[in-house]
From TrEMBL:
This is Polysaccharide biosynthesis protein CapD-like domain-containing protein. Residues 5-235 form the Polysaccharide biosynthesis protein CapD-like domain. InterPro entries: NAD(P)-bd_dom_sf, Polysac_CapD-like, Polysaccharide_Synthase-Rel, PseB. NCBIfam families: PseB. Pfam families: Polysacc_synt_2. Belongs to the polysaccharide synthase family.
Length: 279
């Protein structure tokens, strides 16, 4: 569909390929200034039961992107990460944690080349592929919606907000930092009731690799992080990083953490209903 809509745009090229295919990445990045790395196997249960495939895409694929970007003299690479990379309890989160480390260290691995690597780390993207929303909408037809735990919370960001934040971070990036947006939390049970108010809620129990709440910023990271009005910046603890970067940011308490269960921003059930109507 995208090819049909934009095939006459001289600024766009469409490639069939895979991040596992380094040769294809080299071709795709030829003449490119900025790369946004969004490719991943991201479904927690899928990664749990297909661990080798998750490693091939999320870790080996990330390494391929780094090599291709450096050798093609790409100026900036922004990798998209997830709250599941923080204190990971599932394979998906573990692979994204490794990917974060690879991209941060890409700034030294590049060996003095001009390519800079940074990461954006955020929570669930509303209505993205694999979102729970279409699952609840389908279950609504049968009169029963299943959730794994009534206390489960998640960070929530719209697609438009995510895209705007990524673009803003690309403009600000120095290379080596992780950007974390300040975004609201919501309760999964509120989302289920907003989608299917007439349906019964069935509690099924937590699946392998799930958490009750997610964390976007840990106390350990807070020691070397800065706070701004709408986001945090986790600075790397490596020699290549200049302490003058983001000097206008506010220092965080050493015991600070940013959790979906202890957030100061919450989306109410009424707000969820309105957001769903606008999809």
């Amino acid at each position: 569909e995208q090819f049909q809509d934009y095939h006459n745009n001289e600024k766009l090229r469409f490639f069939i390929g895979d991040v596992r295919d380094k040769n294809r990445l080299y071709r795709a990045m030829n003449g490119v200034d900025i790369v946004i790395h969004a490719a991943a196997l991201k479904q927690v249960p899928t990664c749990e039961y297909n661990p080798i495939e998750a490693v091939k895409t999320n870790i080996d694929g990330a390494a391929n992107v780094i090599d291709a970007a450096i050798d093609n003299n790409v100026e900036k690479v922004m990798a998209l990460s997830t709250d599941k990379a923080v204190h990971p309890v599932n394979l998906y989160g573990a692979t994204k944690l490794v990917a974060e480390k690879l991209f941060i260290q890409g700034n030294t691995y590049s060996g003095g080349r001009k390519t800079k690597f940074s990461c954006v780390r955020y929570g669930n993207v509303m209505a993205s592929r694999g979102s729970v929303i279409p699952i609840f909408q389908e279950q609504r037809k049968n009169g029963t919606v299943t959730i794994t735990d009534k206390n489960m919370t998640r960070f929530w960001i719209t697609q438009e907000q995510a895209v705007r934040f990524i673009i803003d971070c690309i403009e600000k990036m120095k290379g080596g930092e992780i950007f974390v947006p300040k975004i609201p939390s919501m309760k999964i049970i509120d989302l289920a009731q907003a989608i299917a108010p007439q349906s019964k809620i069935k509690i099924t129990g937590i699946r392998p690799g799930e958490k009750i709440k997610e964390v976007l910023l840990t106390g350990e990271e807070a020691r070397h992080a800065k706070e701004f009005d709408k986001y945090f910046v986790v600075e790397p603890e490596y020699a290549f990083w200049s302490k003058s970067n983001f000097k206008d940011g506010k220092l965080l308490p050493s015991d600070f953490s940013y959790s979906s269960g202890d957030n100061n921003q919450w989306i109410t059930k009424k707000e969820l209903i309105k957001m769903l109507e606008e999809l």
